[in-house]
């Protein structure tokens, strides 16, 4: 075989692999989209829960924090039912039941969403700022429009009596 024919054979072999790789990428993109949709549609998913996920081929890893054990179970169940998903690792943390944390959640919600300019984030089917409270420690997750709103949300949450600390993980987008 000449160098040209070897190179040509090699290129044909590579080209034959490309459509398979593209199909795999499309399948993963579809799974990624469906996982996000299914999680957002869960009936008990609230602003006080945070669900995140990673898709690696046909494997899904669920993470985050929820206030109800049933939400963790339901998240795993609906994701496992998605066509093409072969395995689900459910690492979602169930937050401890605490009347004090429940009061803190409501107080932080009012402090953040009740301010002029911040109230626009509450006018969505699922508000974009999620408030996670564990043993008096607050974590803000989700998205805001700009750096100023991110900083204001952190300041407002930090001003709530009984809050020990605030971790502001809000993203701009």
Question: Any overview of this molecule?
Answer:
This protein is of the alpha/beta class and 173 residues long. The chain folds into two domains: 3-94, Alpha-Beta Plaits, CATH 3.30.70; 99-172, Histidine-containing Protein, Chain: A (2-Layer Sandwich). It contains four helices and eight strands; from the N terminus they run αββαββαββαββ. The protein has helices at residues 3-40, 69-80, 99-113, 147-158, and strands at residues 50-56, 59-66, 87-90, 93-94, 129-134, 137-144, 165-168, 171-172. The strands form two sheets. Strands 1, 2, 3 and 4 form a four-stranded mixed β-sheet that branches. Strand 2 (59-66), helix 2 and strand 3 (87-90) form a beta-alpha-beta unit. Helix 3 (99-113) packs across helix 4. The longest helix has 38 residues, at 3-40. The protein is globular, with a radius of gyration of 22 Å. Residues 2-21 have low confidence and may be disordered.
Could you list some keywords that capture this structure?
single chain, 173 residues, alpha/beta, Alpha-Beta Plaits, Histidine-containing Protein, Chain: A, 2 domains, four-stranded mixed sheet, 4 helices, 24% strand, globular
Summary of the model, kept short:
With 173 residues, this protein is of the alpha/beta class.
> Any idea what the radius of gyration is?
22 Å
- CATH-defined fold name of the largest domain: Alpha-Beta Plaits
Global geometry: globular
Q: What's the rounded overall pLDDT mean?
A: 89
Main beta sheet, described? 4 strands, mixed
Number of domain modules: 2
Structural class of the helix and strand makeup? alpha/beta
Count of individual helical segments: 4
Helix content: 40-55%
Report, as a whole number of angstroms, the end-to-end distance. Answer: 55 Å
Proportion of residues in extended strands: 15-25%
* SSE succession: HEEHEEHEEHEE
CATH architecture of the largest domain: 2-Layer Sandwich
> CATH class of the largest domain, please?
Alpha Beta
Q: What are the segments in which pLDDT stays under 50 over at least 5 consecutive residues?
A: 2-21
Number of strands: 8
């Amino acid at each position: 075989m000449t160098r040209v024919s070897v190179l040509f054979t090699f290129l044909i072999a590579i080209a034959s692999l490309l459509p398979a790789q593209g199909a795999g990428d499309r399948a993963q993109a579809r799974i990624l989209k469906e996982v996000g949709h299914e999680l957002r549609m869960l009936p008990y998913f609230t602003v006080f829960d945070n669900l995140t996920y990673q898709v690696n081929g046909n494997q899904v890893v669920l993470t985050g924090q929820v206030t109800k054990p049933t939400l963790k179970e339901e998240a795993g169940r609906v994701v496992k039912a998605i066509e093409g998903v072969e395995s689900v690792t459910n690492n979602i943390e169930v937050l401890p039941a605490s009347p004090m944390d429940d009061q803190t959640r409501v107080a932080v919600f009012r402090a953040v969403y009740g301010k002029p300019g911040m109230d626009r984030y509450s006018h969505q089917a699922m508000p974009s700022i999620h408030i996670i409270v564990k043993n008096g420690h607050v974590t803000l997750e989700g998205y805001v429009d700009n750096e100023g709103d991110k900083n204001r949300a952190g300041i407002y949450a930090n001003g709530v009596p009984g809050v020990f600390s605030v971790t502001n993980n809000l993203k701009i987008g």
